[in-house]
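Quick one: Amino Acid-Polyamine-Organocation (APC) Family from Phytophthora infestans, structure tokens please.
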Amino acid sequence: MSPLVAAIRRPQLSATIPAGGGPYIFALHAIGPRAAFFSGLAETLKGIAVSASTFYTIYSYLQALFDIDVMFAPVFVVTFGFLLLSLNIFGVQALFRMQACSTTLCVLLLLIMFFSAIPHLSYNRWVVEQNWEFTSLDSTIHAIPSAMWFYLGIEGLPLASDETIEPEKNVPLGLFLS
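--- reply ---
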């Protein structure tokens, strides 16, 4: 439902306010500078949280595939952090290329997870016999890797196209392509 709302909402906003800058530009024009400040602060915190969870998830996948020792986790986090920081230093164009590649990779991983789950689908096992009462955060925590790839696959191109020169043209195109 959230991608559908974003697909309807963001092109309208980008055509209304033809300036790059993301949610803080929308907040600045709609509410004022204080709202833009808090929106920008929230976007910055989101970027930090997404980066940290991305690094940890990449490390978790590598650890599961190659049985890497836990003591090397900080090395992987610093390495991936340095890689993304260097992309920012070398320019936005390189960052957007990397974002487009990661978006494509995320969509491919989602398709692989989807098709590999098809043989294990059972309506009786996963719907009828389930106790749907919320008892712990365990299932939520187990769903985070899938949710992360889904979020990156859906939001990657619109977020990149939002920072372009012509957002009124490129944001709807990015949403359509994603």
